[in-house]
Amino acid sequence: MSDGTDPQRFKGAVAFYDRYRLAFPDRLIRRVAGLVGLKLGDAVLDLGCGTGMLGVQFAQAGMTITAMDPDEGMLAAAGAKAQSAGVEITLQPGGSQDLTPQMAPFRLAVIGRAFHWMDRDATLAMLERIVTPDGAVALFHDAHPPVDENGWFRILCDVSARHRPKGTERAGGHRRYEPFLFASAFTQLDGLSVTIRQPLTVDDIVGRAFSMSASIPDKDAFAADLTAALRESSPDGRFTEVAELVALVARRPG
Predict the structure, then answer these.
(1) What is the Cα 198 distance to its own chain's centre?
(2) How would you label 127-164 residue by residue, b for 16+ Cβ within 10 Å and e otherwise?
(3) How confident is the model at residue 5 (pLDDT cuts 50, 70, 90)?
(4) Fewer CB within a 10 Å sphere, N or C end of the chain?
């Protein structure tokens, strides 16, 4: 998902996003909806929607979706994804800084892999104004446990770090969300997660890298270095991914 002050941050990543990014399992979406108490037709904001992964899934669950992103390419891809899935979503250009009190009230605001790009305090302050008192904010992300099967992930991180120019790190720094949530109105936190295990190829891992923000200038050199490092680790090019898909649901206490 994308957001933040630079709408070009993910330029060139759209084609790789749906194909290579980890999707959030439907059972995780159902658990979030159940915890929040969503009913058919409830309004859900997918902020920093990217290609619409979360928005389309909640639309398929019967919710009314507003999908918002500052990247025109991502937003167009979200519209195409919704059409292909046979659901309707409302596309809203803009990022977290474009939220206004005049937006319709939402029972749930979801943010997938984008909260770290935002001004998190300001975003939560505005969400407090547009999320209903009985509603929630759900922050989605994924993690790779430090198990032997995820050795490829360490290789990906190391090669990416060597090729990424200085000054292109995540604007918000650390990825822990709890300090920002505890400083907001949404202090009742529940963590939900699903852990998956699946096969990967070298092409899958290179494609995953290209689905990230477009901060690596020489992609051909990066792909060559990453492929060589992966082949050295596994000559047959076969890997296994163990990933935890997480939703941190934040509600007002009481």
Answers:
(1) 19
(2) beebbeeebbbbbbbbebeeeeebebbebbeebbeebb
(3) very low
(4) C
Q: DSSP string of 32-64?
A: HHHHHT--TT-EEEEET-TTTHHHHHHHHTT-E
Q: Which domains does the chain have, with CATH numbers?
A: 14-144+171-197+243-251 (3.40.50.150)
Q: Strands (DSSP E) along the chain, which ranges?
A: 43-47, 64-69, 89-93, 106-112, 131-143, 188-201, 238-251
Which are the contacts of 74, defined by CB distance < 8 A and separation ≥ 6?
A: 2, 10, 14, 17, 49, 50, 51
Among the ranges given (7-16, 38-47, 122-131, 214-223), the one the predictor scored with the smallest mean pLDDT: 7-16
Which one-letter DSSP state was computed for residue 236? T
**Segment 124-146 mean pLDDT:** 97
Residues 6+ apart with CB under 8 A from 77: 14, 17, 18, 50, 51, 52
Asked if 240 and 190 touch (Cβ cutoff 8 Å), the reply is no
| Secondary structure (3-state) at 141 | strand
Cα–Cα distances in angstroms (integers) from residue 49 to residues 196, 231, 241, in the given order: 23, 34, 24
Residue 211 has φ and ψ, to the nearest 5°, of: -80, -10
**48-66 pLDDT tens trace:** 999 999 999 999 999 999 9
With H, G, I as helix, E, B as strand and everything else as coil, classify residue 249. strand
